[in-house]
What does this fold into?
Amino acid sequence: SSATVEMEEKLKQRIAQHPCYSEEAHHHYARLHVAVAPACNIQCNYCNRKYDCANESRPGVVSELLTPEEAAHKALVIAGKIPQLTVLGIAGPGDPLANPEKTFRTFELIAEKAPDIKLCLSTNGLMLPEYIDRIKQLNIDHVTMTINMIDPEIGAKIYSWVHYNRKRYRGIEGAKILHEKQMEGLQALKEADILCKVNSVMIPGINDQHLTEVNQVIRSKGAFLHNIMPLISAPEHGTHFGLTGQRGPTPKEVKVVQDNCAGNMKMMRHCRQCRADAVGLLGEDRSQEFTKDKFMEMTSEYDL
Ligand code: SF4
Ligand code: SF4
It folds into this structure.
């Protein structure tokens, strides 16, 4: 109908400059991740805490942790040097919403000095219902949530614990809380008209068969893009917390699941599993040009 066409047109405009949300945009627009959020409130069995959050980032990478002020300075320096920079995201190295003061302070500083940069956030979703109002106030237009299951029994194999309201919940109990908060989070994003991308880490033998169900549920709850990413499991990343010997899927296995879901909704197939401090166009990471000792020496034309 013409209403649907109009909606799709509006959506296209909204994502036109976001390299992750729009496949066309990723050739032309750049993003910056700033690593300001070290803590996490859950334990994924595939996460090795020495490295960046494996839900949004490339496992086995250690990003340089910044304070909100350092991160804002870095963003403004880079905005001056890379004119295609349209998006500033916080994706780790832990969970941004497990570090709310650092995360929101960073966004506030950048929004104030460079209001044209779009803000985006990745989270496991546990604290999303709690912070939805602040996310809205800050005009954060895009949120990525990692949803690996909609069945707490499967969740119990993926998460060893969930820390919520000052208590640690293990097994199914923990997975159930995470699941409920993720579903509430999807609803809250929809009501706030914030675009939601869902990442799912595909873990062979654990949730690979289950991801088509995940896809149906997230679609029915308003997520508009689904990014099924392979578990990257390599010996040099160290032993996974609870999935010792777990292999990652082959590219072919990932494609089969993506194709099974593609009838239902748009699938993201150009994700590069970037670092928590990635800089530049997707696929041309320039993080090493902007390490802390380098960018702290640079000045920006915006004054901070
Ligand atoms: Fe690690 Fe999972 Fe927390 Fe990300 S959400 S930092 S993968 S435990
Ligand atoms: Fe985009 Fe994927 Fe990189 Fe995140 S990890 S910035 S979604 S390409």
About this structure: The chain has a mean pLDDT of 85. The domain at 2-295 is CATH 3.20.20.70 (TIM Barrel). The two ends are 48 Å apart (CA to CA). Residues 171-191 form the longest helix (21 residues).
